[in-house]
Design goal:
The protein has 9 helices and 21 strands. By secondary structure, it is of the alpha+beta class. It folds into 2 domains: 120 residues, 3-Layer(aba) Sandwich (Creatine Amidinohydrolase, Chain A, domain 1), CATH 3.40.350.10; 237 residues, Creatinase/methionine aminopeptidase superfamily (Creatine Amidinohydrolase, Alpha-Beta Complex), CATH 3.90.230.
Length: 372
């Protein structure tokens, strides 16, 4: 029987956070043994972990280092893994795809190479518990607060002669709006990093964060994906706004994306096939004369319809053409259709949903008002 072996910092590894239930900034060892979760922690972390972790057992790193040195002549992590295998009579270990390569190589020199769990060490992470659903909803409350702060900033701004936006005598930039978003998220117990506030053609690159002045009469994509400091769970929400007067072409583009999102959400339930969901949105865009090409200068609907969300920002299941596996109850995914056309601009609208047998339940809530 294989036992799971992990070595990572739980504040960056979703698998380690899921396994240990405690946020720790430095890499540490953890392993399963006969259904129990055991962590190897330094004296700096042991007391905190005993109070708040999901671990069933905690071993002293310092004591194991000393014992490994006496038994194997080394106190390195590799020697501690070897010692644990011997002490618990573990036949074999299984590790995740992202297990550190250097440690994997070192361990493989002194024992049979651990098996690599392709497709994820904890596939059950895709089915969210009630506690996880509450945490994700909290993270989306923070995301909504960030978007609200951005909208309020843009509403209060005036349009300058050159088309830029001004507030209290200063030019409104992507960086300035991001700072307002970050502050609002922090007030709700979440940290927002790499937030997107992208204007005009810059927003036609879906992951462009945006920089410099924001302009009137151009689409601005705001994409906020904060992480709760208490739980490590993420929220994820996008809204597209325009300060000023949209053209008829801009209005049509926005309404088409908005309708596509509502259509996809209405079809999302347990048993739905992600590939089919994406195909239906693709077909809807084509019916409305919005075409996609992904060659030298990609434009149109150039990304997947959505992705799983939880302890990682992007996790299983994907809502994409590559996924033909039926959606399951308590999967949590984003639905975020977008259209990107340099010269016209870009629109993306994103919400987070929990899949149930009959429908998909929104875990995010934020107005869709686009004209500020």
């Amino acid at each position: 029987m294989k036992e799971q072996l992990l070595y990572a910092a739980s504040d960056v590894s979703a698998d380690m956070l899921y396994f240990s239930g405690v946020l720790i900034p430095d890499p540490f060892l953890a392993f399963s043994y006969q259904g129990r979760r055991i962590g190897v922690l330094s004296m700096l972390e042991i007391n905190r972990a005993r109070k708040s972790s999901a671990l069933d057992g905690i071993l002293s790193l310092e004591a194991l280092r000393q014992e490994a040195k006496e038994v194997f002549g080394s106190s390195e992590v590799m020697a501690i893994v070897r010692l644990l295998k011997k002490r618990y009579a573990i036949e074999a270990f299984e590790v995740g795809y992202d297990f550190p390569a250097g440690l994997y190589a070192a361990v493989s020199q002194v024992m049979p190479a651990p098996a690599i769990a392709m497709g994820g060490l904890f596939k059950e992470r895709a089915i969210k518990t009630p506690e996880a659903l509450v945490a994700i909803k909290q993270a989306n409350v923070a995301a909504a607060a960030g978007i609200h702060a951005a909208k309020e900033c843009l509403r209060a701004a005036r349009i300058a002669v050159d088309g830029t936006l001004e507030l209290s005598g200063r030019t409104v930039t992507s960086e300035f709006v991001r700072s307002r978003i970050a502050q609002a998220c922090l007030e709700h117990g979440a940290v927002a990093q790499n937030t997107i506030v992208a204007c005009g053609d810059a927003a036609c690159d879906p992951h462009e964060r945006g920089s410099g002045p924001l302009y009137a009469h151009k689409f601005i994509i705001i994409d906020v994906f904060p992480r709760m400091e208490s739980s490590g769970y993420y929220g994820d929400m996008s809204r597209t706004v325009i300060k000023g007067s949209p053209s008829s072409e801009q209005e049509r583009l926005y309404q088409t994306v908005y309708s596509a999102q509502k259509m996809a959400i209405a079809a999302l339930r347990a048993g739905a096939i992600p590939q089919k969901l994406q195909e239906s949105v693709n077909d809807y865009f084509i019916e409305n004369q919005y075409f996609t090409q992904k060659e030298a200068a990609p434009e149109g609907f150039i990304h997947s319809l959505g992705h799983g969300l939880g302890l990682a920002l992007h996790e299983s299941p994907s809502v994409s053409l590559s996924n033909q596996q039926p959606m399951l109850e308590n999967n949590v995914v984003t639905i975020e259709p977008g259209l990107y056309y340099p010269g016209l601009g870009a629109v993306r609208i994103e919400d987070v949903l929990c899949v149930t047998a009959q429908e998909a339940l929104l875990l995010s809530e934020c107005p869709y008002d686009a004209v500020l």
